[in-house]
Each structure stands twice: as structure tokens, then as C-alpha cells.
Amino acid sequence: MLCSVARKQVLYSNRTIGIDSPDKMAKTAKQHVENGVKALKVKVGTGRNEDLARIRAIREAVGSGVPMRLDANQAWDEITAINILTALAEYEIEVCEQPLPYWNFEGLKRVRERSPIAIMADESIFDAHDAFRLASLGAVDYFNIKLAKSAGIHGALKINAIGEAAGIKCMLGGMSESLIGVSAGAHLVCACPNISLHDLDSPFHFAEEPSIGGVDFQPNGTVTLSDAHGHGADVSPEWMEKSKR
Q1: Counting C-beta atoms within 10 Å of the first and last residue's C-beta, which end of the chain has fewer, N or C?
Q2: Which residues does the annotation mark as catalytic?
Q3: For residues 197 and 168, is the Cβ–Cβ distance under 8 A?
Q4: Which residues contact 215 (CB under 8 A, 6 or more apart)?
Q5: Is 47 left (phi over 0), alpha (psi -120 to 50) or beta?
Q6: Which residues pair with 212 in a beta bridge?
Q7: Is residue 5 part of a domain?
């Protein structure tokens, strides 16, 4: 087990809101916050006016004090990113994830220098080599670590170590993992205080959860670790049998 349950048993994940109309996104955000969610991750990137309308509607719906983390998924160029992020500064945005195409490391640096909102790398960072290059450039404020793209826990620890040495905080993100992957990620978070943001809500994308055991993840974003050996999760035998059929 990577962490002491007695020391840090409960984590708080954001809940993700996919791209939709401003009204629908605001309604979903309000429902999450009313259910106890402490932070929101909001997808953007279809156009300046649409993105501004989405964020404005969400902030009006949930009020102040609820952190919002944007994910542009490489949708903007440098000028567009600076323009939109400047316009969004009044809406209490904590960080913007991957505003530019993955290959534009130098562009991320220029956006970071001009943006009033912190910048996070996601598609730009796969391994420790990417982390070192981004840190050397001073290109971002955060790394998004995903176990599925970072060679698992071993690779993730390397990325976090580089981030910590460079003064770059990390987020533990997800790539549609089941509770098996989320349970491993939750233990990694407990072992690494530099991983300060938690985006672990991918199990809610499943129509049926194929795992048993592991962390207890509630719709309000509360992730409670178990005291089982390892991360405590395994594939459900019933799900495996049904898959074979």
C-alpha cells in the first residue's frame, strides 16, 4: 500500500462537465454542487463566445467559492488562448488544461507568461522527458499525470519528482479507467503531496462498473480508501464471465 490510510483516508475529486449548451452545463454544475461536489472540471474549446457563455452561466449557477478547472483539449491557438483566458479571469478559474496543441511547448510558455489563469499540460506530457522539457522552459504551472499514459505508477513518480523539484504542482487525471485504475491513482496521490488536484471521476462514465473492491467513490466526489492489501481493487468475476459469453 502506497499510503497510510490513517494519515490520509479521504480525497476529494472534481466532477467533469462535458461540452453542451450553457444552460445544460450550468444545470449539471448546480446539481453537482448541491450534492456536495467541491470542485468542477469544465470542458471548453468550441469558440470564444460559446466558451464565455458556458463559464458565465456555470459561475452564476454555483456562486463563488467553487473552484473551476477548464480543459480546452488543445482547441486554441496562442492568440485565442490569451484572449479567452483574459476574458475568463473574473470567473474564479483555478487552472486551464492544455489550451494549445500538444507539440507547442514554446507556445505554452508564451501563453503562461500572459495568462491571468494558471496553465496545465496534459497531452503535452507523457513521460519524464516531457516533464523535464516543460519544466526547463517554464511552460506550465501544473502537470496532469495519468497512469494510463505515463507507464503506470513508476513513470508517474518520475513526473511528479520533476514537478516537485521545479515547483510545478500536479493533478492526477484519468483516461476512462475503472475503479482499478482510480484506486491505484488514489494511493499515488496519498504518497505524493505535490499532487494537489484530483480528477478521478472516470468510473462515472461507465454504464457498468467492471471492478470490485478498491476505493469508495461517491457521486459528490468523495474518494475513501480502504485498508485492503495493495490498492484493494480487482476485476469482478461475474463481469468477466459475462464478457466471455
Answers
A1: C
A2: 43, 71, 97, 122, 146
A3: no
A4: 179, 182, 183, 186, 223, 224, 225, 226, 231, 232, 233
A5: left
A6: 234
A7: no
